[in-house]
Fold these 2 entries.
Entry 1:
Amino acid sequence: MKHDWRASVERMVLTMAGEQPDRVPLTFLASEDIGSRISGLTVREMMSSPEKLADISIDTCEILGADVASVVANPYCGPWEGLAFAKANGLGDQFEWKDYSSPFIREGAVCSAIPDVEQLEIPDHSRVEPWPTILKASAIVAERTGVPANFAPSLTWSSIQMLRGSQAYLDVIENPEFLLALCEKIYASQWDYYEAFCSAVGKPFFMFNCQYGFNRTMLRFEDAWRFEGQFVNRFCKQAGLKLAIHNCGFDPYWNEMVDRHTAEGVDVIMVNGSHPLELDDWVAFREKYPKITIMGASLFVNGELENGRPGDVKKRAKENIERLGPYGRFVLSPVCCMPWRVSLANILALREAVEEYGRYPIARS
Amino acid sequence: MAKNETGTTSSDELIARLREQIIELDEAGVEATTLAALDAGAPAKQIIAEGLGPGMESVGKSFEEGEYFVPELLLSARAMGKALDLLRPHLEGTEGTSPGTVVLGTVQGDVHEIGKSIVGIVLAADGFEVHDLGEDVPPQDFVRKAMEHGADVVGMSALISLAVSKMAETVMMLKESDFGGQVIVGGAALTHESAEGIGADAFAADAWEALRKVRSLVGGLAT
């Protein structure tokens, strides 16, 4: 059956506006791995042209039954910003391609080779590959599906860790000025990405940003704000964008993040996370922040999806839908990228779950 | 710091000071006091067991209580690592020094190293012989190194969900090989349930849980 992208767009728009669509929407973070599985091509082949990448991305999203069409090359916190930085600084050989999974750059390799932040070259996102390919593919996907392209920069901790490695955690105490200078460099790079995105795809509606620094097991909230939050907040205000926050870490500072961004003048419209795993916590979040869309909740990729059967996945999805769906502003999503061990049957069980249990009106449980 | 009759600080006092310096993240102090404790005649094993080890345990408690975060863990681990480097020559040939051998690494497809590095330091502080294979370690390397070092336990970390597939493959290869030890896994991509699902013998959410579990696994092997 042909995927009705117009219905998908309407579903997402109504959901985020707090109105009830026909059913709960379903989204995936479509990574290189899943694109590779669906297409049978290596990551290099998939990314050999914008048209091919766009075709595979649309095929993948349609097969999965997603209500958001995105390119199967993670723009956010993923390897591609690392590759662009490496290339811009003559370190392209530090990048490791993988045949059928996401490639990466060795953490800390860039800053080890170029210890002076001032000397670090920012990639030109309109010229340094893979960005022109990804951006053009994004434009094609948006045009063919009618789904607005996702603007997802890498501000800032995911980029810090990629460029500086674990040393960054020591810098928090020993060398904070260096770290702040690196944050400014990353900010400038992401602004360049934003301009390239606007030029290739158009101005985005909001910004979808990973905030991995904001985990209770990693940094104090104030340090996370200093080295990540304040840059995200400044970026949103400078670009005039609302904010969607992604964090699939163990123990995110959800309430504190939302409160601080709001207090500092940025409108948080969506959170995308899998933890806490207790649904009660997400219900409490819903009550506290009724106008923020929850994308994800307690659907952990490495839980039922990876180790269960389709029935287990559907059961978990049903619980999420029954507890969060009735209030609206809820999108079912596995939140993080799906490894090869997640069977296609389990992924497709989510599609069945939104059809079986996600039709509005949904009774409050 | 009190001095004894000859005007020098006793080894017991130095060891107590060492414990405090680990907690206070005083890296230079830890190095100086470790050397002083050795000069004062303290056995390396006692310095670890009564000074560094309890210091790290206290750091772990502060972490679990939300007072310390990863930066503090890394600083204390680095201080601990430097002290262990100074003590290592004095441990060689000491009978009964190590309760077991652990091979550690971050699985293929993942380059995050902090978690398993801290686990390595904490285990070393407890006297374990630790072989850290680094990051992006292929399954066959885990098997080869586990056999080569006669490991009692193999510890694996995965932060990103995509890497769990390789972790599962590694566990399977270890179980199919002649490696007779046990496997512990950790990292943000896992839970107790998912660790069980990939066939691991144990899961640890942080370094101190890893220490308790490894002690238990090795104890189980001994019996």
Entry 2:
Amino acid sequence: MSNIVNENNVVISLENVSKVFYDLKKGPLTVLDNVSFSCKKGEIVGIVGPNGAGKTTLLRIISSLISPTSGIVKVNGLDNSKYGEENKKNIGFLSSDTSIYERLTGKEFLLFFAELYGMEKDFALKRIDELSEILDFKKIENRVCKNLSTGEKQKISIARAMINDPNILILDEATNGLDILARKHILWLVKNAKEKGKTVLYSAHAMDEIEKLSDKIIFLFNGKLISNGSTEELKKQFNCDDLTQCFLNNIEQYEKK
Amino acid sequence: MNFRVITKLYFKELKEILRTFGLIVSLIIFPAIIYPAMLYYTGQTTLAEKNKVDSATISVFVKGSELIPNLSDYIYPDDNIVFLKNGNYDKIDKDCKLIISLEKSTDLFKSGYSNIVANLEYDSTDKYSLKALDRFERILFDVNKESTYERFDEKNIPPEIMNFVSVNSKNIAPPKKITGELIGNIIPLFLIMFITSGAMQVAIDITAGEKDRKTIQTLLISPAKRIDIIISKLFVVITTALVSGFVNLCSMYLAIYLMPMSKFMIKGMKLDFQTFILGLLVIIPLVLLFSSVLTAIGVASKNQVEAGFYTMPIFFLDFIPFIALSTVEIASLTNLDFFIPVYNTALAIKLLLMSSFTWQQIFITIFSNLIYSVFFVFLCVKLFSNEDIVFSGVGDSLFVYIKKIFMKN
């Protein structure tokens, strides 16, 4: 399996992935409909779509938080349906729904997660030291998290996502509701990951962020992948200079079909 | 299952609980300080009130006192009764606590004897009036007895002829059984109540609370298996339920020990080693049952508020077995009674305290509760493995499930 990763440099691959939820009033609701794409090593992939497009569901499926109704998801060549727990060890996940344990100190919180990832205590403490220097939270690491500011909590969250030095980072609207300073940490995280050759899947509403950071962009609409390519390719395809306009043109074309 | 991971998760949860002021207050501070203080205060106040009534001099009014001229001779000094001589009292008030109307009866007119009817008027809501009634009934009993003896004597009939059957009753129940009967209705009620309340708060906090605090997703993206996560949570609930039960029992014992009027209970409460071990063996499966039920409810709830709605009836359901327990006839118990959860444990503890149990009853209690617990532990694991339930709650999922069945048909 790992040879496949090495030969093609494909780190994440999705084949005809669908997810159906059941809504009380509406009945079966297809949130993802036959989505297929792949991400290569060191690639930053931006996922764009309006609310309800299926971005969070897609990222949760890749992270093995939920399973698809049909289709195959592979991470580092390993099928999530069989190796979900193993694959989680290679993924760092951050979203507005991944809060920190506010009754623990930052250090305790990070140590707890490091140990869940199977790291020895001494090694984990060294890794926490390393991250606290990089993210500059040394002074606050022994304070109980509930007493930290939003920005400080964000630093601890980022450190948690990086504690096991994963080769894949998944960021689901991680900058939502954050101020400029806290957002800066997330953008740093993405750039830093790229420098280290990690793969990043990134969903956000801020098109400028996506445009600036991504090597490849995926347009999701009503659970379907409607376009997929680099910023330049998409701009060329939809004959516009602005990514937001590209997306709107894409929706228009899609709906006409 | 990975016990290393379970241990890490277990200690993390415990650490969080120990840092939650509200939980510590309700699990430790209230049972250790507030409850005994309240019990002690209530006990002392009740005792003081009882002493006050016992030692009070109570005034009673007798109409027609000339019918029993030597009535005051029957009053003992510690009766503290005073007859009101002046005035005419027709109601119970702060000055007069009992009105006695003596009248001649014509029932024995033909026999040449006369007898008297005593009408006693009292107020059952007034402690002093009740005390006066109690004392005066004793006085009238003595008057009656002496007058009857005198009449028999006049006719040269031995007074003992009145008693066709002389009753000599003797309580052969051993002191432990008597105390067991007395405290056997109270101890299981408090014990189960404290175990439930201890387990309830923690179970909600570490399951539905994680959904509210948005930490459940943080935990689930770690490589820890869901079964390890839920088992560690279950262990935490069991630990706090046991600690809560233990702390509360100790504080209750202390409170009773401090109350002078309850000294007699302490003597009977001395547990021998066998009763203690058996009690523990009976309680542990119940703790496991409560913990798994409450954890399952916590997991199945959308948030803490919803979990609160579901768990509150469980808390009140605890009281139902005790209504039955106080009226149950020990001799009429069947083995089936020991299959009813909660009721079986309350019964078993009562019988253990009375030393009246059979091994079969203890075995059925332990075994049946273990079976129910296994079912609920399995339910916890199943619920926690269901992504819809973990991220939202069972309410919608249940309706969706029912709807799906109908849609298929």
